[in-house]
Every structure is written in C-alpha cells, then in structure tokens.
Amino acid sequence: MIWLSGTITLVLTLGWGLLHLKCGSRYSGLRSLPMEGLRLRRLGEPFLWLIDTWKLGSHIPSVMFRIQRSLQRTYGNRYSAERTLLFMGEMITYSWLFLTAGCAYALFSGEKAGIALGGMLAVILPFALVSDLHKKVRLREQNIMLELPDLLNSIVLLVGAGETVQRAIIRCVESRKGDMAHPLYKELHKMTAEWDSGYSFQQAFENFSKRCAVQEVSLFTTTVLLNYRRGGADFVLSLRDLSRILWEKRKSVSRTRGEQASSKLVFPMVVIFLIVIVLVGAPALMMLKM
Question: Where are the transmembrane segments (predicted)?
Fold first, then answer.
C-alpha cells in the first residue's frame, strides 16, 4: 500500500509539473478576469491546457452547458467561455489536490484510508462546486424577485409625480448607492452607465433584461418599453397592474424561503431531541442497573 500511494503521489506531482511546463504563460491573461470563489487559479492553469487539448467539454456537453448558463446568469454573456474554462479548471484542481494529499498522507502515515478518503473527496467536491454554483444563481434570482416590486412601486410614485421613466430609475439607483452589492441595483447601475455612454433607452433596457435573466425582469422590461412612450395615466396604470402581479410572486418566493428555512431546522431539532432522551434516560438506566 505504501508503494502504491508513493507511486500515485509521484505520478500526480510530476504530471502537474509537466503540464505546467507545457502550458507556460498561455493562460496568465485569465488571472485578472473578475470571478468570485476561485482560489486556485495559478495552480489550475495546467489543467486549463488539459481541458482545451482533450476538449473535455465535448464529452460532457450537458454539464458544460449548465455551468456556462449559470455563469452567464451571474456575470453576463461576455467572457462566459473563459469563465466556464476557469470553473472547470478549479474543479479538476480541487480533485487533483485532494487525491494527491490523500496519497501523501497514506505514504507518510501508513494509513490505507488516506487514499480512499482522498479519492472520495476528489469525486464529491466537483459535484459540490457545481451544486453551489446553481444554488448561488437561484439565490440571486430570488433576491432580484424580492426587490423588484419595491423598485416598481418607487417608479410608479415618481412617474405619477411627473418624473420621466428614465429619471425615475436614475433617482431610484442614486437612493440605493450604498447597496450596490444587491444584484438588481448592480444591473440597474450598469444600465444607467450605458445611458451615459450613448446607448438608447430601449437598447440599455434590453441589455439589462438579458443580464438579469429573470422572467419577472423580462416582464417588467417589456411593459416599460411598450408603454413608456405613451406616458400619462395609461403608463402608470400598466405599471400598477404589473406591480400587483410581482407582489403575488414575491409572496410565493417568501413562502418558499420560509418552508426551506423550517425544513433546515428539522435535523437540529432531531439531534437535540436525541440528546435530551440520552440525558434523561441515562440516569434512569443507571439506577435500574444498581
């Protein structure tokens, strides 16, 4: 077993070194690409070359499509292929790292479980990373959905007071400058920046809808683009009708989150219940034995 673990460790280490020499600085330009959660970019550059050379994406197209789609919803369509490559490289790097660490532990400690544990983590972790990515996308969509009715109400009030739609949106964004981490206001800020850069109202709104990639935002965008030129009471009335629809959907999302939160409490409650049973039952059993 020691011989096997030593051989695997040597092969994995030398393999990474050869791949590193092969790729050189080919992927150094991707180090500065904005993307949260990637901690092993430099370590994973050899695996990026491996993914490109072996065309791993063509062997698992459904997985690659889901990953790329989730990344597009989070960061937009620009550089989506590069971000997908970085994410795949991160997955393989974690697998390589855990497998190498498990084999090295088995080599130095003589424990056979090191290889099994490292191999198990090497298989489980990529699935965990993909699941976490999809979870973040769903959370982002829910956050946008929860905030959109409030934004729409503010726009309705400002437009009813005589503001134009464009000016109303700008005022809403300026009032939330301290909350630009929120995905909805982050995308709205990009939209107002596009207006300043020369984009038309319609084009900037369409880009905003594509970046958010949420059905309710598309509905909001369509309603605004169809009615903003008419203005007046008709436009305000259409926004109020949309606001009622979005509030109902917000209630549905809030209910879903509440149910998820309550379901997460089941396991801790069961554990506490078992602990209480042990604490109460142990003295009684000890007294019976006496």
Answer: 85-107, 113-130, 265-288
